[in-house]
Design a protein that fits this description.
Elements (H helix, E strand, L loop, with lengths): L1 H5 L3 H19 L4 H35 L6 H34 L21 H7 L5 H7 L2 H18 L4 H22 L2 H16 L8 H25 L4 H18 L2 H15 L4 H14 L2 H18 L6 H17 L6 H13 L5 H4 L4 H26 L15
Length: 417
């Protein structure tokens, strides 16, 4: 039986599981939730279990290698790569929010709609940017590990790796242990990825069983526009950027497909990080040291789906629903809040709701509108997160291309005869 399953391509197994989850949910409805919920939740927990140790070992090992001379460029180059990465975060965010606003302006979602129920939504506490920045430095690293504070773990891992590299031969054994820890975590990641079809069955089944199809009908046009915006990025903008850098589009998307699937069904950029790192290092063949830095950073600071497309279209929807005419000033404020807000809310749970709160507050639009969209948030979050993860991998790929950090056997590069 297991041997026969192994002959079915991974993507096809996932599609079959997706269809099976939908069918089970439609047949049994909410009665299936006691079975479907534990399956999906266990898969998500297994993925998240890997995040903190994988980030720590990968970054510490990468920085240690830099300090021990594997990359003679040293710290100056690391700073330059960091600036390049953030620059591409900003460029692609500007493009994404422009697309979101253009779609909202042209289609005017929410116009003429009325009578939608307002769900109970707990307001998100948005910390000041200074608190976010100072919070990166952990006062108790063990607490950061236990609570999954990824940015704090990244900071500590950089310090540990730098210290191992600076000590040279005195810390050789510890450097080997950290490197081996990185390899162990990648092996565990490969094992858990194989469970994706089972997790997909439970996750998609839970969504359909919980909400049904009738409840979605009034908001289908709005849902379609959010998906449209994300697809314009995924199928138009990102391929164009890859082409402009002389990279193979098919090679990129084939290499990251598993990460996109995981993001779509888990709705967590942080939870997808183990799979994203594997795709970047083992499939795209990006330099391990840079990928181990850029992707954890992107998982916290780069969100074209949650931080650009979604708040832009949603702000127009909410304004139309409440009969507010948007001016040029509104559109400018929405764009600024969407582009800059994601950097200021790095690492804050529920980033999509936080970003929408920031955007509505900045533009002076009613925050009650958030409650209109609460019932369909999971459905939106699937495409938002898949777009987030794709954008994170894209930016890392573009920076790698510009700095010669892609291995010659990468599927991104054209083969020469």
């Amino acid at each position: 039986m297991l041997k026969a399953l192994g002959l079915i391509p991974f993507w096809l197994r996932t599609v079959i599981a997706f269809a099976a989850g939908v069918v089970v949910a439609l047949i049994w409805g909410e009665a299936a939730l006691p079975v479907l919920n534990p399956i999906g939740d266990t898969f998500v927990r297994a993925i998240k279990m890997l995040v903190v140790p994988l980030v720590f070992f990968t970054i510490a090992a990468s920085v240690a290698r830099l300090g021990q001379g594997e990359d003679a460029a040293g710290g100056g180059r690391a700073v330059r790569l960091g600036l390049y990465t953030i620059m591409w975060f900003m460029i692609t965010s500007v493009i994404a929010v422009s697309i979101g606003l253009a779609i909202g302006w042209y289609f005017q979602p929410g116009a003429g709609l009325s009578g939608l129920p307002l769900a109970n939504v707990t307001p998100k506490v948005i910390p000041p940017p200074v608190d976010v920045i100072t919070g990166i430095v952990p006062s108790n690293i063990f607490k950061s590990f236990a609570e999954g504070q990824v940015l704090s773990v990244v900071f500590f891992a950089i310090l540990v790796g730098a210290a191992i590299g600076a000590l040279g031969n005195k810390s050789r054994e510890l450097g080997v242990i950290v490197e081996q820890g990185s390899q162990v975590m990648f092996r565990l990641t490969r094992w858990i990825i194989q469970l994706t079809p089972i997790g997909v069955f439970g996750l998609i089944g839970s969504v359909v069983a919980s909400y049904g199809l009738d409840a979605l009908k009034p908001l289908v046009p709005y849902i379609g526009l959010v998906y449209l915006g994300c697809f314009v990025l995924l199928l138009g903008v990102y391929p164009a950027l890859l082409k402009l850098h002389g990279l193979r589009v098919v090679g990129f998307y084939k290499s990251i497909f598993t990460a996109q699937q995981t993001a779509f069904f888990t709705c967590s950029s942080i939870g997808t990080l183990p799979v994203s790192l594997q795709a970047a290092i083992e499939n795209l063949k990006l330099q391990k040291g840079y990928a181990g830095f850029a992707l954890p950073l992107g998982a916290n600071m780069k969100a074209d789906g949650c931080g650009a497309i979604y708040p832009a279209i949603s702000a127009v929807f909410i304004a139309n629903y409440f009969g507010i005419d948007l001016t040029v000033q509104h559109y400018i404020l929405i764009a600024l809040a969407s582009v800059l807000g994601s950097l200021a809310t790095a690492g804050v749970p529920g980033v999509a709701t936080v970003m929408l709160t920031v955007t509505l507050s900045t533009a002076g639009l009613p925050l009650e509108g958030i409650a209109l969209l609460a019932a369909i948030d999971r459905i939106l979050d699937m495409i938002r997160t898949a777009t987030n993860v794709t954008s994170q991998l894209l930016c890392a790929t573009l920076v790698s291309r510009e700095n010669g950090l892609i291995e010659s056997e990468s599927p991104l590069l054209a083969r020469t005869k």
